[in-house]
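Researcher: Quick test of sequence recovery. Tokens follow.
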């Protein structure tokens, strides 16, 4: 047996990354996730561990706990019962609060709590709560903004709100533009990675050939106001490329004092790996400008020209569709877990199956129902599974998701 001292042991241990500060602020009690929003809890736990939590306790419903433990086994589980909305039962949230009265922890609450958020937060934030600090995010912020937290004065002294600009605007009663802050350091880092140049919005409007407006619909009017002077000073206006959901080119033209060629696009998230879909429609755009635009984006995936009247419907499929696919992949994987597979193995199988099935559908040109029939043997396993999907309302639920997203997109232009 070799004698090991402290220095020898240290030499055998893997070194942490220089920016890691794991364990610097003690324990975290995370209340996150629901039956409808499982992934939010996993991201919440991973983020807490990555940014310095010594130990993370996750309070959530059982299916969420199972998912998180497959990804982050060092998390401590606090399983809770499910309420009528698929969230954490308020009584169990109260029990979580009581658990940490003797050894206070930081409370991290909000991601994925869904409609139950207000009930859960009101159970966690009471007069006898001994939280060292509280971080409220996502659904917790929405509940706070809606005035649903009756115990607002009982928030810990050290309470951090981490809203997106839209949530912050609702909380503070101001516009999104008023709370936007410059992040030069982050911009410089990203520019170094991508080979870009950091400029202000006004400089981009004054110098660019294509000006991409990458903001939420609610922030577009304020952004255009800040660009008006730079655009008006130009002899040749740039092509404005907007990806704001629900905002059509006519709206853009009405809000601009300077008339510019406009292209409305709707990309989806797989563009980040060159496998996306980008819908586009152009107004007052010269043939060379349109050709240059397509050349700029062709590496991101498939470019599909579309008449603007059909944009909301198409966006509800290609723009929102990745979320539906991920929900289906997660459901497939959780079914695999129920049957004894590890979650990571089940997810890999689900993703590979979706990828291959999509490619076969595109290459064969056959109707989806025809391809489905080829997989279903008489009295076989697949037809039983398909029958279970239909009994559960699978097809109507997916169709309803598309129509709901389409209606929401159309409503954004009216606000």
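Model:
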């Amino acid at each position: 047996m070799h004698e090991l001292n402290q220095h020898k042991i240290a030499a055998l241990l893997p070194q942490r990354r220089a920016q890691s500060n794991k364990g610097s602020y003690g324990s975290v009690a995370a209340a996150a996730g629901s039956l409808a929003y499982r992934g939010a809890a996993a991201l919440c736990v991973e983020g807490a561990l990555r940014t310095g939590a010594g130990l993370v306790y996750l309070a959530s419903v059982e299916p969420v706990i199972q998912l998180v433990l497959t990804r982050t086994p060092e998390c401590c589980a606090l399983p809770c019962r499910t309420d009528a909305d698929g969230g954490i039962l308020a009584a169990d949230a109260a029990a979580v609060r009581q658990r940490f009265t003797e050894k206070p922890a930081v409370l991290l609450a909000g991601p994925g709590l869904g409609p139950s958020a207000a009930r859960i937060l009101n159970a966690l934030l009471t007069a006898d709560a001994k939280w060292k600090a509280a971080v409220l995010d996502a659904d917790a912020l929405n509940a706070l903004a809606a005035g649903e937290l009756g115990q607002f004065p009982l928030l810990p002294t050290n309470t951090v709100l981490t809203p997106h600009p839209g949530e912050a605007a609702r909380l503070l009663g101001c516009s999104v533009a008023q709370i936007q802050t410059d992040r030069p350091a982050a911009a410089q880092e990203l520019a170094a990675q991508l080979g870009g140049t950091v400029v202000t919005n006004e400089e981009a409007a004054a110098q660019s050939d294509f000006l991409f407006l990458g903001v939420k619909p609610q922030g577009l009017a304020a952004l255009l106001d800040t660009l008006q002077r730079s655009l008006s000073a130009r002899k040749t206006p740039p092509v404005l490329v907007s990806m704001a959901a629900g905002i059509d080119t006519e709206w853009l033209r009405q809000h601009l004092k300077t008339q510019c060629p406009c292209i409305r696009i709707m990309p989806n998230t797989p563009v980040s790996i060159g496998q996306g879909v980008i819908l586009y429609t152009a107004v007052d755009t010269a043939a060379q400008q349109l050709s240059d635009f397509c050349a700029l984006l062709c590496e991101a995936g498939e470019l599909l020209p579309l008449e603007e009247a059909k944009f909301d419907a198409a966006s509800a499929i290609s723009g929102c569709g990745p979320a539906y696919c991920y929900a289906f992949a997660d459901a497939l994987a959780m079914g695999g877990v129920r049957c004894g597979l590890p979650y990571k193995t089940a997810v890999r199988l689900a993703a590979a199956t979706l990828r291959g099935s999509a490619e076969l559908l595109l290459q064969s040109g056959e109707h989806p129902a025809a391809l489905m029939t080829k997989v279903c043997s008489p009295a076989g396993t697949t037809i039983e599974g398909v029958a279970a999907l239909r009994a559960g309302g699978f097809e109507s639920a997916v169709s309803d998701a598309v129509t709901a997203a389409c209606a929401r997109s159309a409503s954004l232009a009216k606000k």
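The first helix runs from residue 6 to 12.
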